[in-house]
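Hey team,

Filing this mostly as a record. A colleague (T.K.) asked me to run one chain through the structure pipeline before their review meeting, and I want the input and output archived in the tracker in case anyone asks later how it was produced. No errors, nothing strange. Just documentation.

Input sequence:
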Amino acid sequence: MPVKHGPYADEEDTIDTAEMGRHALESTSVMNAKETLFELLGRAGVCRREAQELIALVEAGAISDAHSEVSGVGEAKGAQAGSGQSYRDGWRDGAQAVGAELVQLAEGALERAIGPAMSDSVGVSTAQDSHPVGRVDVERAKVAVTPLYLAFSDKSDLDPEVSDEVLTAVLGTMSVVGRVGYAGQLEQFTKSCGERLAHLYAQYGPGSRTAVHSRYSLLHSPTSIAVLERLTAAPSQLRTEWERAELPPAWLHGLASTWGASPDTSD
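Output structure:
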């Protein structure tokens, strides 16, 4: 490895990909990286079970991305191949076989993260799904809602501890699989209801002239994005979880009223 001189001599070395060549990391190095991550997360207060769940979710996502790339490469190279239809068919079949194997690997990684779980098509919690909402679930939801909320407001006034309680109630309406995919679901919700959300926050949010009181409290918190999505997708389940968490009824009623829905409206 070349020796550094001059003003940049103290900078951290980076991996030289050319030096590594095309060799993949062996399993020992991968496990070393995982254990290092467990140690670092543990120092931050994340228990090993929660860390394992997060890492397994990242692994499942990486494999899914690889599947998409393999599928795209298979189609592109197969179409560009100049060796006749038989060659293109063989290339396509091979890419599909690799893709199918990657799908199984991704499903295995996801099952390691959340365990075997049954869910319906909209991700609403079922009687068979008794997996409690955990801290990692709540933290993932926070990461998801914050940037979406900041597209409509530039500040948040709700107590962080209260935010945890609200998001726990929201996530309680979903199956385990639904919670895993909730970030994407929230993104789709804000895209499809963007204009309506912008009008709502402009009229009742932190930047509006509306006085802050309990009726509009949630609109001053990123959690309101998640509550609005659940009011649209699963209002009955949300009311049930809200009551179970003993959250202020005025928060939900006010948000439902301003959204054009009623807490008493059935799904």
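Quick notes for T.K.: Confidence is low (pLDDT under 50) at residues 1-13, 117-129, 261-267. The radius of gyration is 24 Å.
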